[in-house]
């Protein structure tokens, strides 16, 4: 297995960093290759701007068009090209981050905004009567797997089906489905640690054991069965899910999970 | 009306910037006061790190605790204090941004991560048998209103109830409910422009007219009726919505909208 870990926490001694370190040692100990993008240590530039697209950037700037041209001509900045290369090298991508305001920290969002360029992660493939681009289950990153490892401050009940924050699977849907499944990644069920601000030493030992177990069984873990866009479930080009495919009573994001 | 517009697009000649400019001129023309935080123009620092909390930052860094201490002692960085002051000045806050990968651009997420500190936007109020902090409808920003003005590249059907991207109200829920309702803001229904990459000159005239209309009726627009956390709908401290409060068949994020 070739695993890329994308890590987003400012403190090397944090709980998140400990989970990242444990992933590296566990996977390497099992004979796998591991590369780490430690975004804070790399001083990752978080904001998309004209400097990303070099002297040929259009004025006014058109982010999608400019990023696609820079991708096509191999003129994206070196930091972005390096991350795209790592993604193509990997067969498994782990994202380690704290849930800040119910989504990823800005530095990680900025990694997505800059690395997932047009013609690499979107704007790929043909549009015709049966296909609407290579996306949602197809695309540049097809054949690879992704896993979110997330720490949250609140209690598990706050993120349950009736919890005030909303169900954790729904909170993570824009990331798991919208960012990862979109360019073709298969998404494994997330590893979520609740109440991470209040963990005791004993709690950490339990979490570490559970995390090691997840890491050592990545190869046999079934992905979330998100529907593929171009395999008959959706009308083209409205991309509405056809009627009658879902279990009775299912609505919202859950429609896009089959079975 | 005192309106703060938080704007996040790198190109001053973009469609997003035109909507921001139109908001300024329309509101000022109607006699309202307007302030703008143009995050790209301000070269807003997007990433939370120890530098945000000065020489007294703890080591290892504890983001919540350090941000609360810096808030309490008035030692947050000047850029963050200025944004908190603008939020307290405003009675209405408009966020103008393109939906990138189904959420806000990194620079705007970084505004949230850095400005919404502990003791300002979270970690406010008492916890007891009937209250779980001042949040979700109560808090520092209570009595103020917020509005998202968002452009998306895809077609409206892709964001409809059965659309492949997920319903737009669910995609925006982590922002509208999790970021804005949490510290007390009332959230108005969003202004969403679909297919923004393909707008013609005539389309823009229609959008501008609709946007002006929304701006001139902000004061009379009913907010999304998100439930208040401490008003009897939720069990404390599990924060699960009590049984039987929702219309039959409603699930997921929709549970937290009343009526």
UniProtKB/TrEMBL annotation, chains A, B:
Xref: InterPro entries: Flavodoxin_fold (IPR003680), Flavoprotein-like_sf (IPR029039), NAD(P)H_dehydrogenase_qn (IPR051545)
Gene Ontology CC entries for this record: cytosol
Any GO molecular function: NAD(P)H dehydrogenase (quinone) activity
Pfam families documented for this protein: Flavodoxin_2
Keyword Secreted found: no
Domain Flavodoxin-like fold stretches: 1-215
Record's keyword terms, sorted: Oxidoreductase
Keyword flag Oxidoreductase: yes
Similarity annotation: Belongs to the NAD(P)H dehydrogenase (quinone) family.
Protein name listed in UniProt: NAD(P)H dehydrogenase (Quinone)
């Amino acid at each position: 297995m070739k695993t890329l870990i994308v890590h987003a926490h400012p403190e090397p001694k944090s709980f998140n960093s400990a989970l990242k370190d444990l992933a590296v040692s566990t996977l390497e100990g099992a004979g796998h290759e591991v590369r780490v993008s430690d975004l804070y240590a790399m001083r990752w530039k978080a904001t998309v701007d004209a400097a990303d697209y070099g002297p040929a950037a259009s004025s006014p700037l058109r982010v999608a068009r400019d990023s696609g041209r820079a991708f096509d001509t191999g003129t994206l900045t070196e930091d972005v090209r390096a991350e795209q290369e790592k993604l193509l090298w990997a067969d498994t991508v782990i994202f380690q981050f704290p849930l800040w305001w119910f989504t990823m920290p800005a530095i990680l969002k900025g990694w997505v905004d800059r690395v997932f360029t047009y013609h690499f992660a979107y704007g790929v493939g043909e549009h015709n009567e049966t296909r609407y681009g290579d996306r949602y289950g197809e695309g540049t990153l097809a054949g690879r797997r992704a896993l979110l490892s997330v720490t949250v401050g609140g209690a598990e009940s706050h993120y349950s089906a009736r919890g005030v924050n909303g169900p954790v699977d729904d909170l993570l849907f824009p990331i798991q489905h919208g960012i990862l499944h979109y360019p073709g990644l298969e998404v494994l069920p997330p590893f979520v640690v609740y109440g991470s601000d209040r963990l005791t030493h004993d709690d950490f030992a339990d979490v570490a054991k559970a995390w090691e177990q997840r890491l050592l069984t990545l190869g046999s873990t079934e992905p979330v069965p998100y529907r593929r866009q171009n395999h008959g479930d959706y009308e083209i080009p409205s991309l509405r899910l056809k009627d009658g495919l879902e279990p009775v009573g299912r609505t919202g994001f859950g429609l896009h999970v089959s079975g």
